[in-house]
Amino acid sequence: MWGDVRLESRPISTKKYSRVVEERTIMGGQPRDSAYSGGFEIDMPDNVELGKPFDLDIRLRPYPNAPRGSVAVRMEQTDRVQYEPRVFSLRPGAVKTIRATVRKTNAGLAGIIANADGWRTYERSVSVGFPTLLEPASVAASFSKGGVEPLLLAFVDKDSKKRVSLDGPVFMIINSARASVREMGSSQWANMVKLEVPAGEDASPVLELRPEGNSGEKATVWVKVALSSGQVIHSQAIEFPIYPRWWQALLMSVLGGVLWGLRKAGWPQGNRDAWRRHFAKCLGAAVLAGGIGYCLSSRDLLGLKLDSTTLKGYFLLGFAFSYVGVDAALRLWMPGKPPTM
To answer: How many angstroms separate the most distant Cα atoms in the chain?
Structure first.
């Protein structure tokens, strides 16, 4: 099913795509309100190594009128990331440096999570190599201009090709060429979509693609996977061939058959009534041969390597099928010898 889909890795870029991301990093991903005393601000590297300790500089950023006493901060209790210390006290505005070590990872990520009663939970990912690729997991075998097809991008291990779940949240920035894209359920089509994928997911939210190029061209989707800091940790281009619409392919196959049917019928000579009957049967057999050729090829029953992305392939198919099949059809329809042209 994926034989015609081309995957291509692209160089990693570190360009930050939105100041909103930075604000969400500091404030925990939600707008300020009176239900919380404030949020966390943590300075940490974006890229770390498995089993190698790294430092976290943690500070509580209070909202106006927040309590000023010491706060008990708890880092996530997990066997995937080890914190030293894991539980500690911190006054708002002060900075506490702790040490963290990533022990396990599924998809080359690690989630850093900090909690404190009355303060917003902080969750951010760091990259641990991120040896993960994106693979289309839900898309039609073919799509044509004007059609709308679903697309699900799965995270897979680059070696085993098995789907893996994310250890921490990431953002996906999706750009498209010769196609419009939108998240399923949205009414707005665009050439760029930004998505947030939470920890534990093994694929993107379901997208919809609407190709805008012509048959024979390729729609391209560029996907960037970024941390909440804005650093891009993976970039990949995925190409999808654009196929003719079914009625266009059928029409071209029939036209190819008709071309040979006209050649077979020839020019009128002698008995015109007999020639008209012969011409009608030649034309009918050619249309039938072209239609049957399309139906068989669309279900891959002929075993032919047909370039189904272009209309030329269907025209040649109809011509060839008519060339082989018209005489056989005429022998069934006309037991006697056709009139001499």
So the answer is: 111
Assess contact for 85 and 141: CB atoms under 8 A. Answer: no
Cβ–Cβ under 8 Å, residues 86 and 99: no
> What is the pTM for the complete model shown?
0.69
Query: Helix, strand, or coil here: 303?
Result: coil
What are 178-220's pLDDT values in tens digits? 889 999 888 899 999 999 999 999 999 999 988 887 777 888 8
d(CA 200, CA 189): 28
Class assignment of domain 6-13+130-243? mainly beta
Residue 121 near residue 179, CB atoms below 8 Å? no
CATH 2.60.40.10 intervals, the chain: 6-13+130-243, 19-127
Residue identified by tokens 């994928």 is: 197
Phi and psi (nearest 5°) for 189? Answer: -90, 145
Contact 125, 167 (CB under 8 A): yes
Residue 247's H or E segment, with its range, is helix 246-265
CATH class of 19-127: mainly beta
- Name beta bridge partners: 243: 144
Write the CA distances from 72 to 67, 83, 115, 120, integer angstroms: 13, 15, 9, 13
